[in-house]
Backbone:
């Protein structure tokens, strides 16, 4: 066998088994670290791992903006400079930063409530850009209905959110429209940083009968402060997603962020393996909605849950 033929055979074998192939580089950026966003990230990674993309095939560069939009922009620029093959942007501010930084690298988003309002894509059905992914739009009206079911006497509900987060603004607008339909008046308290969450929650005491926290990254990062106020003043605390219930919120009708991240991973595989174009891939939503209640939180908040509601719910402590 000639050296030339031997060399040719070795190249064929290397391609067949993937030896010598450069690992895929995936940049992951999220606006802040908290359980819901962390779960979405893990779901995404687990999906790719389950599909055969282990440590030998993928290099992840995982970054957190620590709640700072300027850091989110710096991270996005770094990914572009590093020429990553794909970017996962978790939450609206980081998705906006990445969309601004590149129009060519495929971008998957998750935990973004309204990517159209955030000016990340042109439409849900046909994004028209290098960006696609999953939305975490929660059933806000059903969450307020749940509050009324748990506390029928409640008339005024305080909502805590960051008015600088477009995802939260969208949810609060839905809440403004839905609240009167279930006999509730919305009392709004806004924050700009997690450090302001405790004071904002305290400002609601004596003015509301319950508290509602949507999937707002700033407030959820400081959720323990809200729980302290809710428990100390016997105010039912309805939250926007299941991880917040597990942390000590009273209840929600919401999505599972791990499953949402896993669903986003499946979309990434379609891009990596099938060559699909993000511009042609519709934004996806999670169809599974779960009722979750925290019995320990109910006791601390002085809430008695009906047997009928408990029979329907996933119970956590």
Residues:
């Amino acid at each position: 066998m000639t050296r030339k033929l031997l060399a040719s055979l070795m190249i064929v074998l290397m391609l067949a088994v993937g030896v010598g192939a450069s690992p895929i580089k995936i940049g992951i950026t999220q606006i802040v670290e908290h359980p819901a966003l962390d779960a979405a990230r893990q779901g995404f990674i687990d999906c790719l791992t389950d599909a055969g993309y282990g440590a030998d095939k993928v290099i992840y560069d995982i970054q957190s903006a620590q709640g700072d939009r300027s850091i989110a922009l710096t991270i996005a620029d770094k990914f572009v400079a590093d020429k990553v093959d794909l970017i996962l942007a978790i939450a609206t501010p980081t998705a906006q930063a990445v969309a601004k930084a590149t129009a060519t690298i495929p971008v998957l988003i998750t935990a973004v409530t309204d990517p159209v309002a955030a000016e990340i894509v042109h439409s849900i059905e046909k994004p028209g850009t290098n960006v696609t992914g999953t939305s975490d739009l929660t059933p806000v009206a059903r969450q307020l209905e749940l509050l009324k079911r748990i506390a029928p006497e409640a008339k005024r509900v305080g909502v805590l959110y960051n008015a600088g987060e477009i995802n939260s603004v969208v949810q609060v607008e839905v809440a403004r429209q839905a609240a009167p339909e279930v006999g509730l008046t919305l009392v709004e308290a806004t924050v700009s940083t997690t450090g302001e969450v405790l004071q904002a929650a305290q400002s609601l005491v004596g003015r509301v009968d319950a508290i509602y926290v949507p999937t707002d990254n700033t407030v959820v990062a400081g959720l323990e402060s809200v729980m302290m106020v809710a428990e100390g003043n016997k105010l039912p605390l309805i939250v926007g997603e299941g991880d917040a219930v597990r942390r000590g919120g009273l209840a929600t009708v919401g999505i599972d962020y791990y499953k949402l991240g896993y669903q986003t991973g499946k979309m990434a595989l379609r891009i990596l393996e099938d060559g699909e174009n993000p511009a042609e891939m519709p934004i996806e939503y999670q169809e599974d909605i779960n009722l979750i209640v925290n019995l320990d939180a109910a006791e601390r908040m002085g809430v008695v849950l009906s047997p009928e509601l408990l029979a329907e719910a996933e119970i956590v402590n």
